Amino acid sequence: MTVDDTGSGADADGRVNLPPASAPFDQGDPQAADPGEDPLTLRLETLILGAERRYTPFQAARSAGVSMELASRFWRAMGFADIGQAKALTEADVLALRRLAGLVEAGLLSEAMAVQVARSTGQTTARLAEWQIDSFLEGLTEPPEPGMTRTEVTYPLIELLLPELEEFLVYVWRRQLAAATGRVVQAGDDEEMVDRRLAVAFADLVGFTRLTRRMEEEELGELVEAFETTAADLVAARGGRLIKTLGDEVLYAADDAGTAAEIALRLIETMANDETMPELRVGMAFGTVTTRMGDVFGTTVNLASRLTSIAPRDAVLVDSAFAEELIRTGEAPASEAEAAEAAAAAEKEGEEPPVYRFALQPMWQRPVRGLGVVEPWLLTRRDGAS
Questions:
Q1: Do residues 70 and 19 make contact, with C-beta atoms less than 8 angstroms apart?
Q2: Separation CA 200–CA 240 (nearest Å)
Q3: pLDDT computed for residue 194 by the predictor
């Protein structure tokens, strides 16, 4: 792990003496921070990072006991730009490199997995940080008095908020980790941990492109935020998992078809009751899904996306596997005739008739690009079910 295999010299314990020529950090001359950089910006950075700039990338890699090549991979995976050999890194950067490398040396993670951990963490927290600055800190740091600069307001505010936000972030992460670990432990076998059978759904705002031409940017932003917030709350409350939001579309998953179906219909009903919201359409599929870095991939996901594109307004389309799963679990009858027969048989025996939450109506088979011919089913709520 600490041996540099790029051809540069290394000392007896395997630590590099010179950065390899191919490393992305060795662009430009070693120097301290840009002399033209705003000193107040540097103060904010020091406050947030909890340490001053001390190391060039090469010095940080050497102090951490890793090769420049691996340090560069970790740095890029976390989402940070190449910085030449500027003195811009802190003790925390060294510690992070050392920890990731230590996990590899201890055999707890492969090198590829350690890079993946860095990438997934970087991507997730980058989005969180951008949101906090754009939507949260920006509003709070408006100068309360004429003549005050934004930085003069921002510094004491961040000083107060930083420890609280940090504690909250760790709390939420631990909660999410506990939930995700529970799902893995409950998986039937090792293969199911990676390639799982899930219900996957896309919910898409109809006519969003036209809206972007008519609405002001601020109005459009408020609409998207309201949609994403409503969808996220409904998905979480009903036991699903929000995978990602794409502005006018959300992708969520659930362990069973009944949960995914309930979420989809709730979304349709909720949006229909809001006059400010466009119409919604949902496409869902059930089957094997590959999960990577919090996202989902595979034919099942592609099929759900295609069904969304052909779904009628304020309607939900599902694939045949999804329909079969609802029928198998007793959430929906195979047909209304079957439901009537079951009710009659129960009445004859003096028993309670079966209660179905959903109704399924087969639609015309149609070719779907890249997936062949599929048979969509229209999913609705049965009368009296809520």
A1: no
A2: 10
A3: 52
